[in-house]
Structure formats: C-alpha cells, structure tokens
Specification:
The chain is of the alpha/beta class. It contains 14 helices and 15 strands. The chain has helices at residues 22-32, 54-63, 77-89, 105-115, 132-140, 160-165, 189-202, 264-276, 282-286, 288-293, 298-302, 307-320, 350-361, 387-408, and strands at 38-39, 100-104, 123-128, 144-151, 157-158, 171-177, 205-209, 233-239, 251-258, 325-326, 335-336, 339-340, 363-364, 366-367, 379-382.
C-alpha cells in the first residue's frame, strides 16, 4: 500500500478563513461532548430566530415544482429585472438585465470576479480589517491582496492616504466593504468620492460589497459607490442573506456598471465562468423578486426599539463597561469589533485568546487577526442573540477578561 502523503494545493498556502477555522473545530468537539456554546462568531441569522419574510418562503414553495431545470447562466429574467429596478432606486446608472449575474450567494460571485480578472502577481487593495473571503479569493485567484488600513480613531473609515500609498503599477482594483463587516462602519459620501477619484486616477476597478445596505441604524442612509460615477468600472455585490434573513437560500447577485466598454474582455471572462457553473440554484433565484418588491421588514428590526437595534445598544454598553475594552458603535451591519487595551491585556496570540475564552467560558468569537487586522488586540462579536443570551455571553467575556487582568497583574 502506498504511503505517499496527499497534500493540499499550494494555491491554498495564503488562504485562511478563520470564521470557520480551528477555534470553531474546538467548539464542535465541545458540543459533541455535551457542552452548550454561545456562538457569537457568524452572522447566521436563522439560528437566532430571525426568519425570512413569510411571503418569500411562500413564493418559493409555490414555484418549487417549476424549479428543477437549469436557468440562463446569469439567472432568471424576472429577478434580474427586479435587481435592475433596485439599482435605479440606488441611483446606479445604465444597468441592464445583461449586467446582472445571479449567484449562489454573493460569496460565489466574489470569487468569480477575482478569478476572471487576476494573473499571478496582480494586486487588489483590500481593507484591514476585512471580510476574509475577499483576501482568500484574491490569493486563490493567483493575485496578491494588499491591505489598506481602516482608521479606528476615525470611526473605522478607510485611511485614504494609506490606500493611495499602496497603489502600484500592479494594482487592478479596490475592494470597498460598505456597510462594513467586521466593524459596522458606514462610509460617508465624501470618502466614497475620494475612493472613486483614486480609481479614476489609476484606472482601477471598484469592487463594492454592499450586502448589509439595509441594515442601518440611527436613521443612517447608505450610498452605493457605483452611483457616484459612470466613467470607471464598478462591480457591486448584494444578496438576500442579511437584509432578508435567508443565508441558506444562497441568493446573491453581482452588477457590472460604469465604463463597461473598456472592460469587454473582462466581462467575457465573467460570462465564461458564469456558464461553467451552469447557473445559480433556481429556488434561491425565485425569492429575489418577491423580496425586493415586498414589505421591507428589516426596517422594523433596525428602527429605534427594533430587535437588532436593541441588541446592538445592549452589546455596545456591556462591552464598553468592561475595563480596558473600547468599541466604535456600529452604524450598520450585525457586528462590532472591540479593542482590548494592550497595556491591560498584553495578548500576543489572539487565536489562543479566542480558544481560551471558548474553553473557559463556552463563548465563541473570532479573533481580530482572522479579519486580516495586523495587531492581536481586537475581536469580532455578532450581536444576533436575544438580549438575555447576549447579556449572558458578554457577562462571561467580562469574567474571562477579569481573570486575564489578574493573570497579567493589570487589575
């Protein structure tokens, strides 16, 4: 019998996705041993009782008997037309049905957009912290992710000087995650305009991840960066997972807009890749038109007194009451990215921190370096559990941090 070891591809060397990484494996093992874990690691809304609107569910059920065949490789006409109408609401000019690609979640399309573009050594500017799928997709596509810093002292807004410094002749595009995961930041129009100007000056594509564009608090308004110009190329991503609490439906979309003439070859590459996977799942496609055209129940959840707003406020208050913990209050999305003062918590390995928190307190979070943040002094917390569970979880985090302060002698 052969003893040859079978190795994973070298393409995966720089690919990591710690949201579902080694700490989660430890959590699974603990659950198998009978422990109950409070999971604050992933924005999976359904497990916290945040269900999709009933009309979406009913529409999919009604249409399921007709959903067994392949669709056009870009997707069914009706949902793509509904997305065109949505782009008009967002003031993105010149989008036709042909510019819309449906995917198995935005995640599939993010990887597709990178695969179609990048050659070995090409660079993409990605925020730090980022949603790690972006960094992983750039690496897997043969490109080099280059991280520009977002400034915590300025509400986690991109550091435009840092972004500009990191543009080289090899840079192909800039990723903008707005509203932001993991920080909950929402970018002002003047920052978006400055990013457009950088893209214009250097001939770059703007990749806009806008999956949380309706999860907005305190009356904040989201601006699609693609609405601000038509002379550069924009690729915008969105979907039903978060705004419509339907992660498992895997119903996402990608919109190509702006200067499409100079991108004909790239668009041909996108069309090839869309055809290779045949089509996105048909039942998920069937939910899109009803979702976009129906009652927007997300507005009730994020309004003052709404469930998500209450949970955000509670989580922020309880976290910032812990000695040595500070946190920019999220304006959007489902996450916060608190900072642990390194003088009080001199943590050198934040994955070990997350591991120890899980082992001691049965609370699962993701360490900040899992989002490609350069220093081990942050973590991401999901504020999706009901208030009682959230208070219990943050109480356990506070207790664990109290133990750390005693251990470090920083009480």
């Amino acid at each position: 019998m052969s003893s040859t070891v079978i190795h994973k591809s070298a393409k995966l060397t720089n690919v990591c996705y710690d949201i579902r990484g080694p700490v989660l494996e430890k959590a699974r093992q603990m659950e198998e041993d009978g422990h109950k874990i409070i999971k604050l690691n992933i924005g999976n809304l359904a497990v916290f009782g945040l269900e999709p609107p009933d009309e979406i569910v009913q529409d999919m059920i009604r249409n399921l008997p007709q959903a067994a065949g392949y669709t056009d490789s870009k997707g069914l006409f009706a949902p793509r037309k509904a997305i065109v109408h949505y782009t008009q609401e967002k003031r993105i000019a010149g989008v036709t049905v042909d510019d819309v690609y449906l995917g198995n979640g935005a995640s599939e399309l993010i990887t597709m957009s990178m695969n179609a573009l990048l050659n070995a050594g090409d660079e993409i500017l990605v925020p730090a912290p980022d949603y790690p799928l972006w960094t992983a997709s750039v690496s897997l596509s043969g490109g080099t992710p280059v991280h520009y810093l977002c400034d915590e002292a300025n509400g986690w807004i991109p550091d435009l000087d840092d972004m500009a410094r990191k543009i080289t002749p090899r840079t192909k595009g800039i990723v903008v995650i707005n509203p932001n995961n993991p920080t909950g930041a929402l970018y002002p129009v003047e920052v978006l305009q400055a990013i457009v100007e950088l893209a214009r000056k250097h001939g770059l594509i703007v990749f806009a991840d806008e999956i949380y564009d309706k999860v907005l608090y305190d009356g904040n308004v989201h601006t699609s960066i693609a609405s601000l110009a038509d002379d550069i190329l924009f690729v915008t991503f969105n979907g039903l997972s978060k705004n419509y609490r339907s992660c498992g439906y895997r119903a996402g979309w990608m919109i190509v807009s702006g200067d499409k003439r100079r991108a004909r070859d790239y668009i041909e590459g996108l069309n090839m890749l869309a055809s290779m996977r045949l089509c996105a799942n048909t039942p998920g496609q069937l939910a899109i038109q009803t979702a976009l055209g129906g009652y927007q129940s997300i507005n009730d959840l994020v309004a003052p007194g709404g469930r998500l707003c209450r949970q955000r406020d509670l989580a922020h208050r309880l976290l910032t009451e812990i000695p040595g913990v500070s946190c920019v209050k999220p304006k959007a999305a489902l996450y916060m990215f608190p900072r642990l003062d390194p003088k009080i918590y001199p943590i050198e390995d934040d994955q070990q921190f997350a591991y120890d928190l899980l082992a001691e307190e049965k609370v699962l979070i993701v360490q900040g370096t899992g989002f490609n943040y350069p220093t081990p002094d942050h973590f991401r917390l999901v504020f999706l559990p009901h208030e009682d569970d959230l208070a219990e979880a943050i109480g356990r985090i506070a207790r664990f941090l109290g133990h750390l302060r005693r251990r470090y002698g920083t009480e």
